[in-house]
Amino acid sequence: MKIIFIIAALLAQPLAAASGEPELELAGYLSAWTQDCFGPSCQLPAPGARNLPVSLRLALPSAPGEAATAGRTERLLLPGGGELTAALKFYAVCPYGGAGNCAGRYFQAQVTLSGPAGAFCAAALNPADFAPFPVLMCAGAGADGRRYGVTLHRQPL
Questions:
Q1: Exposure string (b/e) for 58-88, b if CB count within 10 Å is 16 or more?
Q2: Distances (CA, A) of 85 to 78, 102, 119
Q3: Per-residue confidence of the chain (157 residues) as pLDDT tens digits?
Q4: Most CB contacts within 10 A, which of 7, 63, 80, 134?
Q5: Alpha carbon of residue 41 to chain centroid
Q6: Does residue 68 lie within any of the structural domains?
């Protein structure tokens, strides 16, 4: 039984490139919002928590087949009360076909929402679209006719 817990703990660790590899610093913002969609069209989104600074370091893999990840989870206040939890996960991937200093390295941004609505959103991005911070919206529809979402952005709103 003890071995199962050790294996589970090792598997739960994030993927990482070899120590000493360069890192990419990601810095941007996370904001929450709701959007009423009761009638034939949706209203403009109403802001909740705004401009929460997000700063992460993501290792850069250097050999084909390697990947690295960084992430964090935030609870964000919604307009009118309530909370939306956003789990952010960022990946750097060196494809198996990558050669010499990981040519073809790409990135992925993932957001998982939970609270009044659940959602999973992801995007595969090239380096210019990923750094200094990915720009992405993620939302899910609640049972009450509203969308609940977050926006990852580079500049304060």
A1: bbbbbeeebbbbbeeebebebeeeebbebeb
A2: 10, 34, 10
A3: 443 333 333 333 334 444 455 899 999 999 999 999 887 888 999 999 999 999 999 999 988 889 999 999 999 999 988 999 999 999 999 988 766 678 889 999 999 999 999 999 999 999 999 999 999 999 999 988 899 999 999 999 9
A4: 134
A5: 28
A6: yes
Give the amino acid at 88: L
- For the entire predicted model, the pTM comes to 0.82
Please tell me the total count of domains within the chain.
1
- Find the domain containing 25 and state its range: 15-153
For residue 9, being part of any structural domain is answered with no
Asked whether residue 2 is domain-assigned, the answer is no
40 inside domain: yes
